[in-house]
Amino acid sequence: MSEADNDYQVAVVGGGPAGLTSALYTTRLGHDTVLIDRGGGRAAMMQDTHNVIGITEETSGNELLQTAKQQIESYGADTVRGLVSDIHGEEGEFRLDVGDDTYTADRVVLATGFSDERPDPPLPRTGRGLHYCLHCDAYMFIDESVYVMGTGESAAHVAMIMLNFTEDVDLLLRGSAPEWSDTTDEQLRAHPVDVIDEEITGMNNDEDGWLESFEFADGTVREYRGGFPMFGSDYHAELADVLGLKRVDEDEGPVEVDDHGRTSVEGVFAVGDLTPGHNQIPVAMGQGAKAGIAVHYDLREYPKSLAELDGESVDPAATPAVSEELREAAAERHAEAPATDDD
């Protein structure tokens, strides 16, 4: 592959819902786009998709992502499976190293997300009693027994929040001392949440792999439908740090962005779980769409300003501004479109 083949207007790093939506928008808005994805991610772990209107719940995360990838490719975007090991340059000419190849782009969208910190085993399988998205999965615990694991402020508050859905909530400290504030401790003790100090020593699952119960060091066994570990997030911000992007909590935490995903570095956008806010697929899609539109405003060729025109007129032969590759992809889609009554 020649260097010219690797020259794009937009490079999106990360193939989750936010990155895929950014790539969808920039491609459909006429900008040569490459999506670089190392695979995996939080969305890929989902066994069922919740809270995405129009997507039925039996759709797995992998199915959702694969369909979206095929969709952006059909519009003319390129997809690359690989890890971006380095990124350098500035607005108008960013260079991204992926294995032995280098990709250049005028704009970069980072959608690298984060990983949930996992507690030590024994643990149920993700989606079979171990859940990371409160707003996605709280519904399934209506009138069911649920646990929350953790010792910090977030664990205490999530345990109280779950009382909106069920009366049977345990907060599992797993042998560690609580780290929440005295105010939170007073608040927690005023709510009907059982705080369990003992470490987990065993786990029982049903024949389908769903969690049935935990065994504890004091010999007790407590049944649960499932629950939420609250041990923090590990942001995949290595590339953000290489570029010197401002983060919310200095060297930790999400990347600081404006309402359209612009970061502290010109030409670099960030979307999805890498940024502050609710970690939800519809939210990530919205962020990806807004960033894609903002990139389009930066890159679109027309209208020319009066200063750019300098008394001249736009040459009709210079239109449209869409590349030949994207025009060919559009022509194929138009040819495959079903006929309408007006055809």
UniProtKB/TrEMBL annotation:
Which residues does the UniProt record annotate as the domain FAD/NAD(P)-binding? 8-288
Bias (Basic and acidic residues): 324-336
Region (Disordered) location: 308-343
Q: Which Gene3D superfamilies does UniProt cross-reference here?
A: FAD/NAD(P)-binding domain
* EC number in record: 1.8.1.9
Alphabetically, the GO molecular function entries are:
thioredoxin-disulfide reductase (NADPH) activity
Keywords attached to this entry: Flavoprotein, Oxidoreductase
Q: Which Pfam families match?
A: Pyr_redox_2
Top-level taxon of the source organism: Archaea
Q: What is this protein called?
A: Thioredoxin reductase (NADPH)
Q: Which organism is it from?
A: Halolamina salifodinae
